């Protein structure tokens, strides 16, 4: 069919959906497909295109959004099924074809439908991301030197560490204060943790060559 796609603004909203068209743009590109929707707010036409033989088999289509102002010419190739009013005589062959078309349309609807969202799962993942981000932020010292942060990062690979101001707290009981040497380790008396922390600190400082 060589009819123009639309003639008045009313046509855009009343009968374009479902129409198979050929669109020629101002840059001389051509697209063919079925009109899925027309958005009057953005003045865009959305078409579904079958661009390969594989698309026919898989029922997968390419969605194109074309700005109305970029359209040079539109021609209708076939009318929407919903506006066909001519009576037809049904036969087994016709019924078979209709069933095929209905199946095709159902597949298209399924492809275009949005998946349901598991809100609880989304909230859970969001909370997990926030928790990890908070933990990561707590591992960054505030107002400390790059050397102090390097020492913290190295020790934390072996022993659990946290910042308390500019002090490094290891195993929740041993404090390493600036300038973070072995003699700067303090903790409960007769605690085996102090000696353990000192050994780790000494080894890490040697690795870092500081």
TrEMBL record:
Region annotation (Disordered) ranges: 85-109
Protein name, entry field: AD domain-containing protein
PANTHER family the record matches: LSM12 HOMOLOG
Entries under InterPro entries matching the protein: AD, Lsm12-like, LSM12_ABD
Low complexity biased stretches: 85-107
Domain AD: 115-209
Coiled coil, from the record: none
């Amino acid at each position: 069919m060589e009819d123009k796609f639309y003639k008045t603004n009313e046509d855009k909203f009343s009968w374009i959906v479902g129409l198979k068209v050929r669109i020629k743009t101002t840059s001389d590109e051509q697209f063919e497909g079925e009109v899925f929707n027309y958005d009057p707010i953005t003045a865009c036409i959305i078409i579904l295109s079958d661009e390969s033989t594989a698309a026919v088999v898989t029922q997968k289509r390419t969605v194109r959004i074309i700005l109305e102002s970029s359209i040079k010419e539109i021609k209708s190739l076939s009318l929407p099924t919903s506006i066909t009013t001519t009576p037809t005589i049904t036969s087994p062959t016709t019924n078979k074809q209709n069933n095929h078309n209905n199946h095709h349309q159902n597949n298209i609807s399924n492809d275009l439908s949005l998946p349901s969202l598991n809100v609880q799962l989304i909230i859970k993942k969001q909370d997990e991301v926030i928790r990890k981000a908070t933990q990561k932020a707590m591992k960054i010292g505030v107002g400390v030197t790059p050397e102090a942060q390097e020492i913290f990062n190295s020790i934390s690979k072996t022993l659990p560490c946290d910042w308390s101001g500019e002090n490094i707290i290891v195993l929740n009981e041993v404090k390493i204060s600036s300038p973070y040497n072995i003699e700067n380790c303090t903790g409960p008396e007769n605690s085996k943790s102090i000696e353990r922390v000192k050994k780790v600190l000494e080894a890490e400082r040697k690795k870092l060559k500081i």
